[in-house]
User: Fold this.
Amino acid sequence: MTHNRSNWERGLYRSRNGMILGVCKGIADYLEFPVTALRAITVILMLITGPGIALWVIAYFVVALLMKPEPILPFESESDREFYDSYAGSPSLAIHRLKQTYDALDRRIQRMESIVTSKDWNWQKRLNE
Assistant:
């Protein structure tokens, strides 16, 4: 995913194009580090620890569960990123935010409709013509 902002501003996400859940690729993209080197370091550390390999595997899957997946499309604004992060963290909270936005828009439309359909509006429109 390429766009103008730095990876630090974009955030840390699991890559959708990674080999195993995209953890190493996501971290490598975030740190601007070669993904092959990071994978090699990860495998070497797993092998060096011997019996601790099970802990590394468990830790890898825990990190995969905690990292949000990379967005499909680049963010166009900071509010897009905030919404995506809130949705990835809590879908119900994001749906609540959308409902609040919809309700506010609905109230504005109702106010506009009441003004446009009022008798005063009709007289002002006739006077302006």
Observations:
- The chain has two domains: 1-74, 90-129.
- The helical segments are 7-10, 23-31, 35-48, 53-66, 78-89, 91-116, 119-128.
- Residues 1-74 form one domain.
